[in-house]
Amino acid sequence: MFVLKIEDLYGLEYYKYNVHLLLHIPEFVKQFALWAISTFSYGHYNRVLRQMFRNSQAVPEQICKLYVRSKRVEDSCLEVFSRLGCFKNAKILYDKMSGIYHTKNYLEYELHLKIFGKPVQRALTLMEQTCIEDFLHENILNETDCYKRFIFRNILWHSENYEKFQRRQNGTALLQNGLFIIISGIFGVCTVRNNYVRYVIIGKILNLPY
After folding, report:
1. Is residue 45 part of a domain?
2. Which of 50, 107, 121, 202 is most buried by its number of CB atoms within 10 A?
């Protein structure tokens, strides 16, 4: 009703994109735990888009063309940099040329995972070990390295007991099956067969009131 009355209350010129977004809020409230979702990424992309035009003529066209070109280059680079034998310095050079922030002091695992901080060694509980072995289809050693912060697919996550974040909560994740989990940490576990380290996220299922 508020959206329908915008013209009467404020005038037709106030029918903007943000007003349209209000129509989707009820459905998002039903589907997601809003306190577990960060909107900082939208503010970041506003800055990215603001840098994609150089003059006052045909601004939307400039932004669209440059954005499409940059995404094509990005997709091509992801494919190239994932190849075996690709020089790591080539990706660093690409990041510098494209203005991408290059995270430092991290442990990199495969293509999409970066792990931060000093690990804490701890033994797995019997349930944790059983669940991990069932998931990996391999026997693992009981001693693990536990980390509190990591970046997976360009999203920063942290465990529920990470003390430094006060203004936002990135410790809750939505799984593909629709369940929410509270992240306990990311664990480096060694397989018994070849002592190979695998990284596994462990969390507790969150029971929502609806």
Report:
1. no
2. 202
Per-residue pLDDT reduced to its tens digit, 162-193: 877 666 667 888 888 878 888 988 999 998 88
187 shares its domain with 150:
yes
Q: For the purposes of burial, counting CB atoms within 10 Å of the CB of 173, is it exposed (0-12), middle (13-18) or buried (19 or more)?
A: middle
> Which one has a higher pLDDT value, 111 or 69?
69
Within this chain, do residues 77 and 141 fall inside the same structural domain, yes or no? no
What pTM was estimated for this model as a whole? 0.55
Alpha-helix residue ranges (DSSP H) falling in 32-190: 40-50, 59-81, 88-98, 126-136
Domain identity same for 12 and 70 = no
Domain encompassing residue 178? 106-205
The number of C-alpha atoms within 13 Å of 193 and in the hemisphere containing its C-beta is 6
The beta strand positions in 134-179, using DSSP E, are 143-147, 149-152, 155-158, 172-174
